[in-house]
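seq:
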Amino acid sequence: MKQYIKDGVVKTRNNIVLRVTKEINGKEVKLQVINPSEEAILADGWVEYIPPHVEPKKSRMQIVQELVVKQYNERADISNEEALDYMAIIYPWDYYLDKVLTEGMMVTYEDKPWRVRQTHTPLEVYPPSLATASLYEVIDKEHSGEADDPIPYAPPMEIFEGKHYIEDGVVYRCTRDSGTALSHRLADLVGLYVEEAK
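struct:
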């Protein structure tokens, strides 16, 4: 429906009421014209109004993509395999500075995916690393942990009893759960948490 503007006011034709004076029986009478013709509106000083085109800040597709990525990143139930497949949409660690990271969520740091080990608020001076092994562990491809499919050991990493891990070409069998992410080399943990696999 066309719009018209006059004195900064925008209206459609059916919302414009014109006040006109007409002579009826020798007397001047003031009348209101409801739903006037376009010619009458233009004669009264109204001009057609065409709203300026405003480009949306984001397309619908961009908004949907952002919502999906946000929902994905808020999940704490994503497998390591899935995290590696979708690493491109995992938020970088510094996105969460001064926000809360929940246990199980994922972040990327230095081109590696990391899983959050405990709920915390990240600080710039404590990024994922060996020094923050209690907070983050590197995400790796799922391996069975059997002797023929050992899990690559990439500290900081928690290890589990009965699983096999490989580091520097040597396969180790875990003899007890570490209960926390370890930052030492497996060779240094023989007798404590691991033994060389036979």
